[in-house]
Design a protein that fits this description.
- By secondary structure, this protein is an alpha/beta fold.
- The termini are far apart.
Length: 356
């Protein structure tokens, strides 16, 4: 009896889960894949030499379902290298590749909806959707009538309007043609958010599809990337780094200069706020290590003069607003910076304007 790949009209999908010591959660991830309404897929679980029971759980499910393959790199690999190794295992027959991290899970209609969106346009390189981070929605901001947009528009929305559409590797689905073309380094291995860099590189030449439904769940854990994203001003530094490396492709020179200037001001104002918080409470050396490491990735470092200006701006902002400054600083330490404003048109509207 055949595998069904040839006789079924539905495109064949490669689902990939990199695994390292996630025995507490991996079974839920696996079951969410097997319970998909869309069934024409292979499921590759890449066990990165786990020391807990993750490998045993994966092997047990592989023995029950022939669509599951458990693979392992020759030796333990850092995260991005392991992700790339896992993606190299996809079938040459697959048309789409969906990653699901071992501590996340998919809603039952995830593959069905994403494949349907991808099939509407052969130039789509990435499909995304809304997601849940625990009980909080994310990836909002794209107008509901926009289902397929150019890659340049998707990049402009991120850089001009602060619209975050990519989520995490669990949020998106890729064209397998794109995955194979970028092998063996689909994800840049020298970046903190390697999936964000991959998205900007792919969208240079490909369109972007979006499903206006919640299709994935991201677990929120202390010390995880998502935790850092919420507590370490990650989106501020991500905005700076994305603009620095890709902004000149997606934006006009005038837009780039304005956006870059605003991003640096907002970034150092955020650092200044944290510097003040360190003086009224427990300091966070891991916060500063995180930012130093990310800036080092583009050959830069925190500049004392700019930080001093940021401290002054943060303090001035606090003392000119109602409420006792120190208390409000502590209360709002998780607040996110808002996108910069334009008096004539919102930046989101500008990003969505037809390309010239």
């Amino acid at each position: 009896m055949g595998s069904g790949r040839e006789v079924m009209s539905e495109p064949f999908v490669s689902v990939v889960t990199p695994v390292y010591n996630t025995g507490e959660f991996i079974e839920q991830a696996i079951r969410s894949v097997l319970e998909q309404t869309y069934q024409n897929f292979e499921y590759i679980i890449c066990n990165n030499h786990s020391t807990d029971n993750s490998g045993e759980i994966a092997a047990r499910y592989a023995a029950l379902d022939p669509r599951i393959r458990v693979v392992q790199p020759p030796q333990f690999l850092p995260q991005a290298k392991n992700f790339n190794f896992a993606l190299q295992q996809i079938s040459p027959e697959s048309r789409y590749t969906k990653m699901i991290l071992a501590d996340d899970w998919l809603f039952p209609n995830c593959l069905q909806e994403m494949v349907a969106r991808a099939e509407t346009n052969p130039n789509i390189g990435i499909v995304s959707s809304y997601r849940l981070i625990e009980a909080e929605g994310d990836c909002f901001g794209l107008p509901v009538d926009k289902k397929v947009i150019s890659g340049r528009t998707a990049g402009r929305l991120h850089m001009l309007g602060g619209v975050w559409l990519f989520g995490t590797p669990s949020t998106v689905m890729y064209s397998s043609t794109v995955v194979r073309a970028r092998a063996p380094h689909f994800y840049p291995e020298d970046r903190f958010y390697h999936d964000t860099d991959a998205a900007f590189q792919i969208l240079v030449d490909h369109d972007f599809g979006f499903v206006h439904q919640v299709l994935t769940f991201t677990r929120y854990q202390p010390a995880s990337i998502t935790y850092n994203e919420r507590h370490f001003l990650s989106r501020n530094i991500d905005r700076v780094l994305s603009l620095h490396q890709y902004g000149q492709f997606y934006l006009t020179p005038e837009e780039f200069n304005r956006a870059m200037s605003h991003a640096w001001r907002a970034y150092y104002r955020g650092l200044g706020r944290q510097w003040l918080l360190d003086r009224v409470g427990k300091s966070k050396p891991e916060f500063w290590e995180y930012h130093q490491k990310r800036l080092a990735g583009i050959g830069m470092k925190i500049e004392p003069k700019r930080l001093a200006i940021g401290v002054g701006q943060a303090l001035a902002r606090e003392v000119t607003m109602p409420g006792e400054p120190v208390r409000r600083l502590i209360r709002e330490r998780r607040a996110r910076e808002q996108p910069w404003e334009d008096n004539s048109k919102t930046l989101r509207e500008r990003a969505l304007m037809p390309e010239q």
